[in-house]
From TrEMBL:
The keyword Nucleotide-binding does not apply. Its cofactor is Zn(2+). Signal peptide: none annotated. GO terms for molecular function: hydrolase activity, acting on ester bonds; metal ion binding. This is Succinylglutamate desuccinylase. PANTHER family: BLL3975 PROTEIN (PTHR37326:SF1).
Length: 312
């Protein structure tokens, strides 16, 4: 059942509408658990669209296996999705920096507060994101160290390749995931792929993981895969490779490939005079989980991330 979460009038007779699709078992007992799946908070991150489609399709076709309530929010920032804009067009605001919002605040703050209120009470929330147009990411879950103990057992079911546990940062306190965790809704962020694109294999991979999570929560009785065992970044070395010169980055390695310390990872080229500006090498041995997708780089541009072995 498609429901309107919030509607705000805009100019020239238009309106800002956010919808969700609620899928329920055929017979309700009143004790069902509820899972919320959200995406589209950044308008240029489209990887979650395929996941929403697949969830809706499978739940519709195999509804007899559904034992809980699933709320699917395919576009929390529909204006951004429609205009291929990361933030909210016309407001110059990153929507994932205004949570938990304010019911009596400005338009965007009011909408953020209504989203929070609607998801409130869920037993779990999965917040789907993509990378930007510059970088490609393997399917991963990101969470702060403060939440790791509570979320890690569930994140391990999500069929991702990596769980990245990071230090808490003040800027993250205004995100949807932080706001939901703060009010008692366990939430983690899934990051995958590249901006403005859909990676079919990643979408299916995460969809399978969500059904594994639903089975653990007692919401799904259908068949599920055995989720892949993710790498966990905790106590591992992390190699960050930034460009020291401006130019065109030509990688030598594959995304999700394994490299050795000192191995050439690519070159930064100067098309004007045919010279190599920089030879890029890996600072550590490990897995390439982030790789530059957009070839034009400036000094300081992130080229890759390599997840190494245990720290000494």
């Amino acid at each position: 059942m498609i429901e309107k979460v919030v509607s705000i009038g805009l100019s020239v007779g238009e309106s800002w509408n956010i919808y969700k699709n609620r899928i329920e078992p055929k017979v309700l007992s009143g004790n069902e658990k509820r899972l919320s799946v959200v995406t589209g908070v950044h308008g240029d991150e489209l990887e979650g669209q395929l996941v929403c489609y697949e969830l809706n399709r499978i739940l519709r076709e195999k509804k007899e296996h559904l034992k809980g309530i699933v709320d699917i929010y395919p576009a929390l920032n529909p204006l951004g999705v429609d205009s291929i804009t990361r933030g909210v067009p016309g407001f110059d605001i990153d929507m994932n920096r205004i949570f938990p919002g304010d019911e009596e605040g400005a338009v965007t703050e009011h909408i953020a507060s209504r989203i929070m209120a609607d998801i409130s009470g869920s037993d779990f929330c999965v917040d789907l994101h993509a990378s930007n147009i510059f970088l490609r990411e393997i399917p991963q879950i990101r969470m702060s160290g403060k939440r790791a103990d509570a979320l890690l057992p569930y994140a391990s079911l999500m069929n991702v390749d990596l769980i990245w546990i990071h230090e808490s940062a003040p800027v993250l306190e205004s995100t949807l995931s932080h706001g939901l965790n703060s009010i008692g809704v366990p939430t983690f962020v899934v990051e995958m792929g590249v901006g403005m694109r859909i990676t079919k294999s990643y979408g299916h991979q995460i969809t399978e993981g969500i059904f594994c999570l639903m089975k653990e929560l007692g919401m799904w009785t259908g068949e599920t895969i055995i989720p892949r065992e993710p790498m966990v970044s905790l106590n591992r070395m992390l190699g960050l490779i930034h460009a020291e010169k401006a130019g065109i980055f030509l990688p030598f390695v594959e995304h999700l490939g394994v490299v050795e310390k000192g191995q050439p990872m690519g070159q930064i080229l100067n098309p004007m005079d045919g010279t190599v500006m920089e030879e890029v090498v890996s600072p550590t041995s490990g897995l390439v989980f982030t790789l530059r997708e957009y070839p034009v780089v400036s000094t300081g541009s992130l080229l890759a991330r390599v997840l190494g072995g245990e720290e000494e």
